[in-house]
Amino acid sequence: MRFLLENNILIPEPLSDKSDAKRITDIESSYPQPLNPTFEYSTELQHLLYGKQLLLDEIPFSLENIHQHYLNGYLQYRRCISKTKDGYSCVRCGNADQKLFASFGCARCKQDCAYCRKCINMGRMSECSVLVSWTGPSPIFEIPEKPLVWEGTLSPGQQRASSELIKAVQTDDQLLIWAVCGAGKTEILFEGIGTALQTGKKVCLATPRTDVVIELAPRIKSAFPEIDVIALYGGSEDRNKTAPITLATTHQLLRFYKAFDMIIIDEVDAFPYSVEPMLQYAVNQAKKDISSTIYLTATPNQTWKKEIQAGKRKAVTIPARYHRHALPVPEFIWCGNWEKILKKKRLPGNVMAWVKNHLEIGKQAFLFVPRITYLENIVKILQTLDARIEGVHAEDPDRKDKVARYRSGEIPILVTTTILERGVTVPNIDVAVLGAEDKIFTESALVQISGRVGRSAKYPTGEILFFHYGRTREMIKAKKHIENMNKEAIQHGFID
């Protein structure tokens, strides 16, 4: 889209008969217009655009209608690509790596047009494309006096974290909640979300993974039944809606702009959020200038741990699960050169014995392995013991079906890569890691894997084994991490 500039007003080229139009990237300002309070704006457009930044091509309204809202101060046109002394930067994703920009001969602007390749799967951001954001009043939602109806009881550790969370919401502050796997993080959030809603704040709960968004949506809706809740992920039917509570993958936050008064980042240590600056940029862009940010993790990185210890980062620790039992501690078991044995289409004897024992006693188990290439051969070997044994990995088209069958008890042993280190809760299982010395098994991954065991109040204990061909620093750190949490929980009186 090209624009003409007349009397500090941007006019889209198709709505003008003049020919001296420029690309929005080449215009020095977005030229916002004063708000006309008598203008009858479209509430449908308001709900679509509030707190968002959408490409003009994504908006299902006529250009004339959109432009009337601009002229009356209810939305603004924004460039997609900024020019800097070092080249280009992308307004939506923050990309400034010149290797991730390309140019094409554009039929629309009749010039070579640079675009961002980093976030192109969200729609092409080019020099002549336009972002549109709402600048009018916020949609009004009716919030009941007591939006939270959940009547459960928090453990002492949960209550301590909940109280700190409420303070962070009231003071628009940041807080890290460091809670062990199975501590009941979702329930900790309820009172803080309720406090935000009661003061008219808009809340976002973001997580790196789609399956977590889908799993959380009914739990949040159940706790806040009179509040609109939308869930945003690739292919979501809620993408054109706005609501007081938004659940979203961190990728979806690229579409938001100064939208939220309270933003919660779940699994802040998880891939891809932990290693992708674009997603961290998206979070900062999606929250209002004055807002609260809550980080949730069971395994903070070393930098954050040091900041907590130095008092530079506000944090609250929950070292125990809600059911007041200690975390199961990993046991190291040497299994020899398992890769060499696997090449002979066998598995180490103690690994086979572990699997056979679980089949005999009828107790389900996860067997984590380092690579997809190993997984397929391991599954074939184990299926000679029981044909119901299956394997699952990130590229498996039947992944969701297999996990569902495992949850229902159809699959006795599920062999998996680290794809299932988080998010899957099965009440009564044991877990083993084959090749725990592999570099894929970091401290964080091994703590998360260990956290699959003993999560249920009915089955609070279980076995976690690290089968290895040599102990690594990460294995030792993971075990020490869990032991330290148990020690802290005992000191606070959080476990029996």
Automatic annotation (TrEMBL):
GO biological process, one term: double-strand break repair
The entry's keywords: ATP-binding, DNA-binding, Helicase, Hydrolase, Nucleotide-binding
Residue ranges constituting the Helicase ATP-binding domain according to the UniProt record: 166-318
Matches recorded under CDD domains: DEXDc_ComFA (cd17925)
GO molecular function: 3'-5' DNA helicase activity; ATP binding; DNA binding; hydrolase activity
Residues annotated as domain Helicase C-terminal: 354-496
Entry superkingdom: Bacteria
PANTHER family to which the protein is assigned, alphabetical: COMF OPERON PROTEIN 1 (PTHR30580:SF1), PRIMOSOMAL PROTEIN N (PTHR30580)
Protein name: DEAD/DEAH box helicase
